[in-house]
Amino acid sequence: MTITPLPWDSAFFGMNIGKAESMCSGMADLDSLIDLARESGFRLIYWTTPPGIDLNPQTIRRLNGTLAVRRITYRLDFRDDPIQIRFSEEYDSGILTDELEELAYISGRYSRFNTDKNFQSGDFHRLYKTWIFRSISHEIADSVFVVKDTGNIAGMATVKHHAPVGQMGMMAVHPVFQRKGYATDLVNACLQSLQRKGIYAMTAATQAENQETCRLFEKCGFYIHSMSDIFHFWI
């Protein structure tokens, strides 16, 4: 097993962070991994495994590890049939409003960077504020869509036009404006933007704990493309 340094994460959080993947159904030598991480000066390791493999919880705890998230990646393959948009519009101003910032935090409420309390206070908000700003600046997203209600930005979604499979990024609808079909419309806006680029597949990742979003994707016709467990080991 090898550890891959993560320069962006390391710079952002101010500590050496790396990632590793299990080589074969949980048989990896975790003690050796942590020893290697410690010798190499890492402070945090993200370890990704297939879900449901046989891991000893006591060993995980002894090595200061925790299951940070079970990530589900959904996928939808679609055609050139017309996609109807009722509420969504593209957001092109490049201005980070308070509403967009709050929606970014809502989108990440189940994020491992929010649920793992070993991160410094404020890290989660700094991270998601950075991500939404880089999205509306078109650094990490090609399109950003919003839904407005009574003059307020009620929901938003981001998408990357990456052929042959587009990638949906952040998505959230403010709780005050839910149950109005806005989330489905935002998904459709992302699909339509890909369709116009000749891209006919889209993936969207979420957390298993985020049952509301899982149900949304399944209602929209997505299927589970992959699942993985991500552990955090603090050295």
Sheet having the most strands: 10 strands, mixed
Total number of helices: 8
Beta strand %: 25-35%
- Strand order, biggest sheet? 1-2-3-10-4-9-8-7-6-5
Can you summarize this structure?
This protein has 235 residues and is an alpha+beta fold.
Q: What descriptors fit this protein?
A:
single chain, 235 residues, alpha+beta, ten-stranded mixed sheet, 8 helices, globular
Description:
The structure is a single chain. With 235 residues, the protein is an alpha+beta fold. Helices cover 31% and strands 30% of the residues. It contains 8 helices and 10 strands. The protein has helices spanning 7-13, 30-39, 57-62, 98-107, 112-115, 123-136, 182-195, 211-219, and strands at residues 4-5, 17-21, 44-49, 65-77, 89-90, 143-149, 152-160, 166-173, 201-207, 223-234. It has a 10-stranded mixed sheet with strand order 1-2-3-10-4-9-8-7-6-5, with helices on both faces. Helix 4 (98-107) crosses helix 6. The chain starts with a strand and ends with a strand.
